[in-house]
Design goal:
Layout lengths: L3 E6 L6 H13 L2 E7 L7 E4 L10 E4 L1 E2 L10 E4 L4 H5 L14 H10 L5 E5 L4 H4 L9 E2 L6 H6 L3 E2 L1 E2 L4 E2 L2 E4 L2 E4 L5 H12 L2
Parallel strand pairs: 1-2, 1-6, 2-5, 6-7, 7-13, 8-9
Antiparallel strand pairs: 3-4, 10-11, 12-13
Helix pairs in contact: 1-6
Amino acid sequence: MSKGKIGVLVEEHFDPDEYREFNRFFPSKGYEVVYLSHLWNQPSLRFGSNAEGDEVKEHVVVTTEVSGLDPNGFKAIIAIGAYATDRLRYQEKVKPGQKNNAPAVAFIRLAMSTPGVKLATICHGLWLWCADPDLIRGRKVTCAHNLISDVSNAGADIQYDLAKETTADIVVDGNLITSRHPGVNKLFMETIVAELEK
């Protein structure tokens, strides 16, 4: 019996290790993994991971459109790491002073205000939140080192491990779980499940 769905936001150039580990770990704990993206009026799209060596080893076919999707159908929403999250925040048309209206950003905005839904992101994933600084202003987070300026400029409170001279491995702030790097993905996944099962 499924404990519920975990939605994973994905696009081209996702992290292959996270993808493989999500697909093993969450189902082993009783959760169904569903990949979400903006499908550009297509019934499905196929995305490739970052290359390992010279080869793109992982691909995912996504059939769930994120635009207009109800977050209530999910226990948690994860933004996968790597450059996929930069692609997810792309918007076709912009106006001065208008919030980012990319479908994935709009979905994160809605999910952040949906009671009972956990939001989680690792490595570069906070790029999605930086597209609308209201989403992380004042929140305690961690992130990849090369996102520190982006996340800080969005008003988040980055947590550090001063002894290691790094950002914190993982930070939980209410409904938001952030992790700094795929190297701590096991801790990230364990933390998500622990938060879901409190």
